[in-house]
UniProtKB/TrEMBL annotation:
Belongs to the acyl-CoA dehydrogenase family. Residues 150-240 form the Acyl-CoA oxidase/dehydrogenase middle domain. It is an enzyme of class 1 (oxidoreductase). It comes from the Bacteria. Residues 258-399 form the Acyl-CoA dehydrogenase/oxidase C-terminal domain. Its cofactor is FAD. SUPFAM superfamilies: Acyl-CoA dehydrogenase C-terminal domain-like (SSF47203), Acyl-CoA dehydrogenase NM domain-like (SSF56645). The keyword Flavoprotein applies. It catalyses: glutaryl-CoA + oxidized [electron-transfer flavoprotein] + 2 H(+) = (2E)-butenoyl-CoA + reduced [electron-transfer flavoprotein] + CO2. This is glutaryl-CoA dehydrogenase (ETF). The keyword Flavoprotein applies. It holds the Pfam family Acyl-CoA_dh_N.
Length: 406
């Protein structure tokens, strides 16, 4: 795939690149497995994360503040819907997209989540299932960061069983009336358009609902102890009337939303390893700078053993993500394979963050280091787009041919 001229990444000079390199790169040389374009996308995202997100993220997390001005900057950088082609999107490959997710989540899970909700969920739904008119209306503005989308699937009664959704869409003349509620909907209170999934007489269908529509209400969830620098909402749909052409014509049944969820899960496979890398880097830095009993704690055998185990799991996770990316680019990636990646990446990232917290000692619970913020965020990442248990059942079904969901 080629990258559009407007969003084409440029490679920074070697001095700047070396100065910005994570500590783990000294041992884990993944660069040799990447193309020049993939590496350029990674470095572009790394520079953006370090220059535009990291300087304020600890305070933003504390203040529960979503820095909306970064949205247009992300659009200008080509990160929004970057795996899509046309309509102002970058047309980048799967591995390039994964590397961008890794670098953004190394700064904060909330910003990788934003890219996922905007690009992998809302934009992908329109791109995969929308009419030509729907694509032309929404995608260019969303790619530029001028418009924001959300993806309204999960409901208060349970996110793991979308087949049991209670939201309905009833025909009303030439249009539809939607009633129901959704929960944990990212970006809903600032979105311009919501992709709403609802039960109809024809099965589950998707609708594009401008958020200014009468009866659509999005309320940010204010009690979060995780993902505090991003936005998740309760959504209420009360007699929301949309025209007939609001329906996504090519999405029928749950295969529609699931097709988008798999796009988002792919980004998580990479992104969680970014959070893990940030925690591992913090632990290495602390281990080589903190002195006890007359020597750096990194000279202690137990600390070195912990760092080695953390590093091995990080390396395995990135290599798995890269393998899945290559499969995706060949068009052979399966949902079960994505479940392997999502389950492994998040589970191991949480373990790495926990070990890093211990190595940092008491200081590990402060905002002087990113570890507790990552650890809290990763608990959300573990839950959304399929819990550990859901992905275990997906893999169990693939291994045995037996369905244990019901």
């Amino acid at each position: 795939m080629t990258t559009s001229d407007a969003a084409a990444p440029t490679t920074p000079d070697s001095a700047r690149e070396a100065a910005a390199a994570p500590l783990v790169d000294a041992v884990f040389d993944i660069d040799a497995l990447l193309s020049a374009e993939e590496r350029a996308w990674q470095l572009k995202a790394r520079a953006f994360a370090r220059e535009r997100i990291l300087p304020t993220i600890e305070q933003d997390f504390e203040d529960k503040y979503f820095r909306r001005e970064l949205v247009a900057e992300m659009g200008a950088a080509g990160f929004l819907g970057m795996h899509l082609t046309g309509y102002g999107c970058s047309g980048a490959g799967a591995v390039s997209y994964g590397l961008v997710c890794l670098e953004l989540e190394a700064a904060d899970s909330g910003w990788r989540t934003f890219v996922s909700v905007q690009g992998s969920l809302a934009m992908s739904a329109i791109y995969k299932y929308g009419s030509k008119e729907q694509k032309q209306r929404w995608l260019p503005g969303m790619a530029a960061g001028e418009l924001i989308g959300c993806f309204a699937l999960t409901e208060p009664s349970g996110g793991s069983d979308p087949a049991g959704m209670l939201t309905t869409a009833q025909r009303d003349g030439d249009g539809w009336v939607i009633d129901g509620s959704k929960r944990w909907i990212g970006l809903a209170s600032i979105a311009d358009v919501a992709v709403v999934w609802a039960k109809t007489d024809e099965g589950v269908r998707g609708f594009l609902v401008p958020t200014e529509t009468v009866g659509f209400t999005a309320t940010p969830i204010d009690t979060k102890l995780s993902m505090r620098a991003s936005i998740q909402c309760d959504v209420l749909l009360e007699g929301v009337r949309v025209p007939g052409d609001a329906m996504l014509p090519d999405a029928r049944g749950l295969s529609g939303p699931f097709g988008c969820l798999n796009e988002a899960r792919f980004g998580i496979v990479w992104g969680a390893m970014g959070a893990a890398r940030s925690c591992l880097d913090a632990a290495i830095g602390r281990a080589t700078s903190r002195t006890v009993f007359g020597k750096p704690i990194g000279a202690m055998q137990l600390i070195q053993a912990k760092l080695a185990d953390m590093f091995v799991e990080y390396e395995k996770g990135v290599l798995l993500a890269l393998h899945l990316g290559r499969l995706k680019e060949r068009g052979t990636l399966t949902p079960a394979q994505i479940s392997v990646g999502k389950l492994n990446s998040v589970r191991e990232a949480i373990k790495i963050a926990g070990e890093a917290r211990g190595i940092l000692g008491g200081d590990g619970i402060t905002s002087e280091f990113p570890v507790m913020r990552h650890l809290a965020n990763l608990e959300s990442v573990r839950t959304y787009e399929g819990t550990d248990e859901i992905h275990q059942l997906v893999l169990g079904r693939a291994l045995t041919g037996l369905n244990a969901f019901a």
